[in-house]
Each structure stands twice: as C-alpha cells, then as structure tokens.
Design brief:
Layout: H1 2-18, H2 23-26, H3 35-41, H4 45-67, H5 70-73, H6 76-87, H7 91-100, H8 104-113, H9 120-173, H10 180-232
C-alpha cells in the first residue's frame, strides 16, 4: 500500500511538472453531458491527486475484504479446538495451536501464555493489553480509508478554487471582454474537480463505515472469547514454550 501511495505521488509530481499551462486551453471543448471529455479537459495536478487517492482507496478496500473476516479475527474452529484442549488439560498443545494460527484470539492467547511464569494475573493483564493492540491494528486498516474520504472533497474544492482563480484572471486579462460561453467552460472545468472529489469520498466513507462496524463487532467477540480462554488457563501449567513440548 505504501508503494502504491508513493507511485501515485510520483505520478502527480511528474504530471504537475510536465504539464503545459495551455493544456486545458488546447483540448477540445466537451459536449454537454460528455463527462469523459470534461475529465480530459480538467487534467491537472489536483485531478491526478484524486486519481492516486482512488488507487490507494481500492487497495485499502481489498485489504479490508481480505483481513476483516471472522476467520481472521474470531475463527470458531480455532476457538473450539482451544476449548477442547483446555478441557483435556493439554495446555502444551494450546501453545502449539496458537503458534500456528495468526488470528486475533490465537494471538492474544499466545501472548498471555508467555506470561505464565509471572502468574495468572500477569497472563490476564497481558491478554488485555494484546487485545487492545489487536483491536487498534484492525481499526487502523479502516482509518486510512476514512482519511481519504475526508480529504478527497477538500482536494476537489482546492482544484475548483484554483480553476475559478484562473477563469477570473483570464476575464481580467481580456478587460472583461470574455463572453458567457468562455466563462462557462472554465467554470465547468473548475467545478469538475469538486465532482471528482465527491465521487471518491462518498464510496470511501460508506465502505469505511461498513467495515468499521464489522471490525467493532468481530473484535468485540474476539475480546470476549480470548478473555474467557485466558481465564480458563491454569496458572501452574500455562507456561509452556515451544521447547517444553506437551509438558
């Protein structure tokens, strides 16, 4: 994701440097309702910034689809297996199961088991800390999408303001002789930046809200399950390490 964001920044800088000031003026006038033509006429640094933000947003959404799932946060099969092993008193195998898995619950239980030499209270405390860390990690996946959704309209608005400045500067340069048709073309190009920003922001914020709710629901369940499992671990036998085997 960082590489994608860097690529977008490089593209933006390269286009901004290489862009000729007369590019928009040389483009054909877009026909009414021709959004693609208007898009081509509005290409500038602000447009490419929004495009780069769109690429990053897609990458974040794909990452959320892959990571924000029950099987990655609170997998029922792993929880049931851990409960079965604890019921049978096979605490060493609990350590092995959590070492193999990478889900939220397994990570918390594994971290708690490593604190067994310090006693049961230390295990509980460390489990709570790790649960908080894991919850923050999953919420952070969604925060970038929220940030993009909040910034996109501002970038679009900045592009619109800049376009309006150029339009009225041209009006002043012609000593007020520019006609309504010429002004409307410049203003439509400027307002298109705001449209692009909203087109990015609306779905980004919608998806961010959906996945934030999913993260809170799944992480809440994972916290409850991991806390219940840690409480069940016997302090005297809860200190196995990979070198201890099943002792």
């Amino acid at each position: 994701m960082r590489n994608l964001a860097l690529t977008g920044l490089v593209v933006f800088v390269g286009v901004a440097v290489a862009q000729d000031e007369g590019l928009a003026a040389e483009a054909d006038v877009a026909a009414p309702g021709d959004l693609w033509g208007l898009f081509l006429q509005s290409l500038d640094g602000f447009t490419f910034t929004i495009i780069a933000g769109s690429l990053v947003a897609v990458a974040v959404i794909v990452r959320c689809v892959l990571d924000v799932r029950e099987s990655r946060i609170a997998p029922p099969k792993v929880i049931a297996e851990i409960d079965t092993l604890i019921d049978a008193g096979r605490i060493g195998e609990v350590q092995s199961v959590t070492e193999r898995a990478s889900d939220f619950v397994s990570t918390v239980v594994r971290t708690a088991l490593r604190e067994a030499p310090r006693g049961h209270d230390a295990m509980v405390d460390m489990g709570e800390i790790e649960a908080s860390v894991q919850t923050t990690r999953y919420l952070r996946k969604v925060e970038l999408l929220t940030l993009i959704g909040n910034l996109a309209p501002l970038v679009g608005l900045a592009g619109t303001v800049w376009g309006m400045v150029l339009a009225f500067t041209s009006l002043g340069a012609t000593e007020g002789q520019a006609g309504p048709a010429e002004l409307s073309i410049g203003i439509s190009k400027a307002l298109f930046h705001t449209l692009l920003g909203l087109v990015l922001a609306i779905p980004a914020l919608f998806v961010a809200g959906v996945y934030r709710s999913a993260v809170e629901r799944l992480c809440g369940r994972a916290i409850a399950e991991s806390a219940r499992i840690v409480e069940r671990l016997p302090a005297k036998a809860a200190a196995p390490t990979p070198a201890d085997g099943n002792a």
